[in-house]
C-alpha cells in the first residue's frame, strides 16, 4: 500500500471557495459570519456576554457594545420576563414571615409606663 499524499488548497482555490460560500450565505465577507454568530450568542439569554467576549478574544467586554443593540420592544419583553421569573421564584420559595413578638417590659419602657 502506498501512502497517498494529501495536497492542500492553493491560496487562490481557498479564496474562491470562501467567496462562493459567502455568496451562498449572502455575506459580504467571511468576517460577516463572525458578526452573525456574535449577534446570535448575545441574543441567547443563557449565554453570558463575558463568555462571548472570551470566545471572540476581545480584551474588553465593552467591545461587544457594537453588537448589542436591543430594540425598545426587546428591552420591554426582557424586563417583563425577568419580573415574571422573579414572581414565580417568590411563589415557589416564599420567605417565611414570623409574627412579631414583643417583650411587654420593653413596650412599657418604650411608652414610659412602669414595668412593674
UniProtKB/TrEMBL annotation:
Q: Which domain of life is it from?
A: Bacteria
Any single GO molecular-function term of the entry would be: DNA binding
Q: Does the keyword Mitochondrion apply?
A: no
Annotated PROSITE patterns: TYR_RECOMBINASE (PS51898)
Domain Tyr recombinase, first and last residues per copy? 1-80
Spans through the membrane: none
Give an example GO biological process: DNA integration
Q: What is this protein called?
A: Tyr recombinase domain-containing protein
Query: Species name for this entry?
Result: Streptomyces hawaiiensis
Its lineage opens with:
Bacteria, Bacillati, Actinomycetota, Actinomycetes, Kitasatosporales
